[in-house]
Amino acid sequence: MSEQSHFETVRGYLEALEVTIDHEDAAEALFRISDNARGIANMVVDCEDDLLVIEQGILAIGRDDVAFYKKLLQINRELVHGAFVLDDAGQMLLFRDTLQLANLDLNELEASINALGLGLATHAQLLLTYAAEQAA
User: Fold this and answer.
1) What is the mean pLDDT of the segment spanning 2-14?
2) CA distance 101 to 3
3) In whole angstroms, what separates CA 19 from the centre of its chain?
4) How far is CA 58 from CA 8, 11, 32, 91, 116, in A?
5) Which pLDDT value is given to residue 133?
6) What is the mean pLDDT of residues 18-22?
7) Residue 33: CA atoms inside 13 Å, Cβ hemisphere, count?
8) What is the DSSP string of the chain?
9) C-alpha–C-alpha distance, residues 63 and 33, integer Å
10) Architecture of the structural domain at 3-135
11) Angle formed at CA 109 by CA 122 and CA 84, multiple of 5 degrees
12) d(Cα 72, Cα 126) in Å, to the nearest integer?
């Protein structure tokens, strides 16, 4: 399947999931989506090449905190889809998941997107505490 047809398939799935497509770039095969009910704001959905990459910014990382990083790694073990990761600069905590485009279906995409909301809800206290400590 071509990159363009993957892009169209993913757009159809996003529309079926009733998320808001805030921006799309067919040339880059990118979407930026939101859905307040699912805890999504400016989620990037990249369907270039053979992989669908989903990334959602969570919070800025102001300082290294080994205990916080260790807890995130433990949380990653519990997540059904995706993981909490740091960006390349180590300054932003992201939720990220990757899926194969060749056999992607609506249920798989929905499960990955919903995993973010579940992960945030389940671990909100940890994330809020860390964010408050960063602000102090």
Assistant:
1) 86
2) 9
3) 14
4) 27, 24, 15, 11, 10
5) 85
6) 97
7) 26
8) --HHHHHHHHHHHHHHTT-EEEEEETTTTEEEEEEGGGTEEEEEEE--TTEEEEEEEEEE--S--HHHHHHHHHHHHH-SS-EEEE-TTS-EEEEEEEEESTT--HHHHHHHHHHHHHHHHHTHHHHHHHHHHHH-
9) 29
10) 2-Layer Sandwich (3.30)
11) 40
12) 9
Looking from the CA of 123 toward its CB, the CA atoms found within 13 Å total: 23
Q: Which of 61, 121, 63 is closest to 86 using CA atoms?
A: 61
Phi, psi angles (nearest 5°) of residue 109: -65, -45
Supply the pLDDT for residue 95: 94
Name the amino acid, one letter, at 134.
Answer: Q
In the block, tokens 């992960």 appear at 119
Max intra-chain CA distance, the chain:
50
- The single residue listed with the structure tokens 């892009």 is 7
Residue with tokens 């969570």: 58
